[in-house]
Fold this sequence. Notes:
The complex is a heterodimer of chains A (278) and B (306). Chain A is built from 13 helices and no strands. Chain A is 78% helix and 0% strand. Chain A has helices spanning 2-13, 16-42, 55-62, 67-75, 78-96, 99-104, 110-147, 156-184, 188-207, 212-221, 223-233, 237-240, 250-274. Chain B has helices at residues 52-60, 80-84, 101-112, 116-125, 141-153, 171-184, 198-204, 222-226, 238-247, 270-279, 294-305, and strands at 12-23, 26-32, 35-37, 41-45, 67-72, 86-89, 159-163, 190-195, 207-212, 215-221, 227-236, 251-257, 260-265, 283-291. The chains are: A mainly alpha (278), B alpha/beta (306).
Amino acid sequence: MGGAMRAEILKLRRRPAFWILASLVLVTLVLFGYLFTWLFIVRGVGGEDVQVADADQFLRLLLPAEFVGATVSSLSGLGAALALILGALAVGSEYGWRTVKTIAVQRPSRLGLAAGKVAGIAVLVLAIALAALLLALLASLAVAAAEGESLALPGAGRVLAGIGAAWLLLMVWTAVGMLLAALFRGTGLAIGLGLVYVLLVEQILLALPLPERIADVLAAVMIGANGTALAEGLADASTTQGLGFDPVGAGQATLVLLAYLVGSLALAALLFRRRDIA
Amino acid sequence: MHRHEGESGPAMVVETHGLTKRYDGIDAVADLDLRVRRGEVYGLLGPNGAGKTTTLRMLLGLVRPTRGSAIVLGREPGEPESLRRLGALVEEPAHYPYLSGRDNLRVLARYVGCGDAAVDEALAAVELAERADDKVKAYSLGMRQRLGVAAALLKDPELLILDEPTNGLDPKGMLEMRQLIRRVGQGERTVILSSHLMVEVEEVCDRVGIISRGRLVADGPLAELRAGRGVVVAADPPDAARHVAAGARGVRSVEERDGLLHVDVAAEDVAALNAALVHAGIAVTELRPVRRSLESAFLELTAEGG
């Protein structure tokens, strides 16, 4: 599996699409997570008609003490869509370029190949998660310096939990992308359907005027809703109070996301193992 | 498992028994019994759609047979131990277009577990070292085919499986590819070459299996496949010779073409034919077996197979 993992890392490291997606994850984090919030909400740039009563509370979310929660929250939004595309490309392109048959006649077994691919992607996703946290820390320090606010950092435990949460969130969506690509044996349909789900289906379902019990059940099983719950679990409760957040519980969210991760990868590996490669 | 005396065991690199693959109710490959010996260059010859690629895919473990069995290098197809010892190029070469030729091989080297020295060796073997650092998307088809062969050679395999490696190449590229196959097929290495080109098989292979509509309709050394039924006889006087030959033991028919008699007779009755002619006072100046071109043998056999 070690060789297959190193092969996967080499493939992705040299692939322009990987760098574009990783850069987009980081750019959207800084732009939407920090710069725009600071400029348009905290600073009120854009006109006098922009009035935000909770500007101070939003400012607290941008400070270094909250960079972990802010990062994970950002990754559960656009980061999820980009991670899904990454997973779909990593698996689907092997079918598109027909390299799947080239690698399937090398030494490892099919399961060994699948495990190596997952391990390689997991390493690179961890690198993206670490880069996102580092960038968020720098952005939060810049905001704190500009606003003359506290430069205090969160505790090491919260930072470690944040690394795990950021990795898990990105990895779950990457795994869903991999599963869809394995299912459809290509990238097009996998990315298309995946994005529809990430960006539309969950939002529509949560916005429907459903009975509270059904809405709660949906929120408890949907990946996006659990991702949001995980992000909120990493935020300081006093900071998020009054901002419309409704923490479900990070522990449950972690378990649900882990179940999706393992389930998606196991199903993708099973499909790859059992199907003929034409 | 049924084994032929003296033709099984370690000497056999590939053995299949009743290998069958069925797609949508149609047998792409049917009851295929194939044996490939160690060290030979074996040609799998057949028209497009005959089942060659499906056969090779089954040998590589890419597709599972509907029924029957195959042993490749002593193992089930697709087992890591079998894959470790074979190299393959199936259909068109498939590489990562954004990587250079060298990096494509480096990726495969990691899967295989060999170092970058093997990459350089493989590139040199296919004479691609000079363009190794160019992106594959800039390669011509011939270069991609050669890179595919280099990828197959990376493991220094005991068994090399090449599926239509000259497809789409210009005449120069085809010639170079055949020279390359002859080169890599020297020594102990076994090569299975599938092709629909008779000239290719004739130039490169020691033994040939002819496959038609999923069935192996002939299998043997080239000389054997080209051997026709009967003998050609040059005799004087021709009319008397024809008359005597027609009455000789085991003769099924006699035809005169270009002053030569084409006698349809079983191999074991040729001596009796010769004796009959000599006994009748006819001067026999030539008596040789009928030789067909591989092309006519192929057409005959595939027509029978269909």
